[in-house]
Fold these 2 entries.
Entry 1:
Amino acid sequence: MSVNKYNSHLIILPEDDHNLQIAKGFRRYLNLKDVIQVLPVARGWKKVMEEFENNHIINIRQFPKRNILLLIDFDDQEDRFSYAEGYIPENLRNRVFILGVKIEPRDLKKDVLKNFQGIKSFEDIGEALAKECAENNNELWGHHLLIHNKPELERMILSVKPFLFPN
């Protein structure tokens, strides 16, 4: 199912299958299939950026209510965010977001399985993250493998909260 491109919506472009599952859990919790579209995996963070540049910039310009989340692994590379951010044209910066696990999602899952009740899968992680966004909570978002996302997450929530979290 795809979103109505003329209404406010969020497209999620995941790097790999683990990120895809997290994105699906996020969407499942919010139950907004007509507002959130999860794209197929790009198969690598550089391929996410290439696909964004080659296939999505034109659509974001064409549809002013489109927002896109680039969901990548940071692979413990401190310059990964700024490198990826360099792909985003300045005039689209307020509608393009980059989030991801500091190393890889499997590292997050391994730690979360031990320390967070009720989380057993990547989709459960996505649901928990969406729930925290909806409830203005940051227990899981505050995890040492996710805390680096805080400025970008806050920026994204300001943009998408009206149509993803209307309460």
Entry 2:
Amino acid sequence: MAQVVGQRAELAVKLGLLAVLACTAFALVLLLWRGQEDTTRNEVVTQPIAFSHKHHVGDVGLDCRFCHAQVEHSASPGFPSTQVCLGCHSQLFAGQAMFEPLRESARTGAPVAWKRVHRLPDFVYFDHSIHAAKGVACIDCHGRVDQMPLMRRVSSLRMDWCIDCHRNPQPHLRDPSHVFDMRPLGVDDMASVQMLSRLQSQQRLTDCSTCHR
């Protein structure tokens, strides 16, 4: 009996099936990875030291820049160095067991292994300094950290969340001199907001290359 399907056709079918299986496997891996890329909102991330933003920012009144010193000048806000922490805690509560990671860092020179609460995929570019300079307040993305005994994420950080702000930035802007204030946007800010909103390029804000470089 003559062969119904030629060898070349059979090979093409097999290769097609393999391609479909490979694409399906890739899609499943991508789906699982994207499902794990973010910390769930309002979930507290366990840190080497149980640092309370409520105490340091809300009660003591520390400015965000005291610990995140690079936030106005670079894409990353930076983490506080061991020396910054020891500036207070070499005297205050110095013998507490919870500060052993800090003492170990001072002895070895290795930084404290703080864990990120707000994480973005590697293919997303985000610059803290630009947002601070344009009048986007810390609380707009991070929430009222001055009321958080332990840091948690309150925003989704998903693409649609970012795009919503980029399409209509005005409700999220205030005078850049007040971006570190722990207070909601008020009526007194509206004049500055209207001025700042005119400085934004709508096309640039929604261009893919702004965040995907």
